[in-house]
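Q: Structure tokens for this one, please.
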Amino acid sequence: MTATSGLNSTEKKAAFSIALLIALRMYGLFLIMPVFSVYAKTLPQSTPLLIGLALGIYGLTQALLQIPLGLASDFFGRKKILTIGLLTFIAGSIVAALSTTIYGIVLGRAIQGMGAIASTGMALVADVSRPEQRTKMMATIGMSIGMAFMLAFITGPILFGWFGMSGLFWITAGLATLALMQLHIFVEEPKKHIKKGFSFSEMLHTLKDMQLISLNLSVFVLHAVMTAVFVVLPLILVEQLDFAAKQHWKMYLPVLLISMVFFIPMIIIHEKRKKYFQFVTFALVGLALSQVMMGLFNSSLMLIAAMLVIYFAFFNFLEAAMPAMLSRIAGEKYRGAAMGGYSTSQFLGAFVGSSLAGIMMTSGYTHVFYGTAVLVILAAVAIFLVRQK
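A: Here is the predicted structure, written as tokens:
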């Protein structure tokens, strides 16, 4: 059974259109991650903290604006806010592409993040889908983001070798322009749009529900680990193993393909058995193990590749499974507020992880992996305790 079985023609069109829109934008955001820290270290006035900040500051501006822009879309329409968000993202990409200093890239990345449209995109999914099909549509979008993530890690080093970092930002701007065109050609907004005000009771509910809190904590940690790992890992590959950045795709391609052998069956089994929290706890423990082992065994390219298989398998499973869980737990009434909190936690984690990595790597790259392992264990304990209750 595919993620889109049971959807009617309108829902299928909406699911693929919105998934493509979000995937194009996320691919652009992920594109620099495999190589950015290596490039940024060569820039004037660059420091470890500024490298981490440049990589993750988009997460801070995303986190601050997810809920406000989501609420604005309730009043002014989803497509208008999505258009504004994509135009802002394009502007940030251009600023970063034209920058020759680390400060200019920090500014460009911050502006990119101000185009915070994830919650608006999810709200549009809710608008055009039947309640019983919404989880499938969320899963389709989750899988598209996962594919964008994997494709970015394979193609990013290649494109960096061809066009440099400035070229990557121009490509990102071009992809966002394609997403904008696709939005206005293929994405249909419901004619009747209900304007509503902000509900404090809905937000309060999401802040008191321990299951939702545990998922928000988990996605915060998941993205904190992602950005932290890819602040230091490219530097380890280049500086300690003499593995040129433009060649990194030769490792990421087989690693990501092998990881699919593990995480796709995990998604299928976890849906069949419906033991959602147990699988998430298991995946978090596996993720923590990958971090400890990357801290211990990073002196060999083969060992790093093996640890990355474990990392990507559990990361992609969690990235696909948790939004669907959130949709089920929140229910129809609280889904919008819950998605806003989830998206905010996700992007805030990206900012915190990269910033902490920038601080911690001054005392050694391996310390970052041990720090991320501790974060993941805390999230796993939180999920386990909530499940016990």
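A few notes: Residues 301-360 form the longest helix (60 residues). The mean pLDDT is 84.
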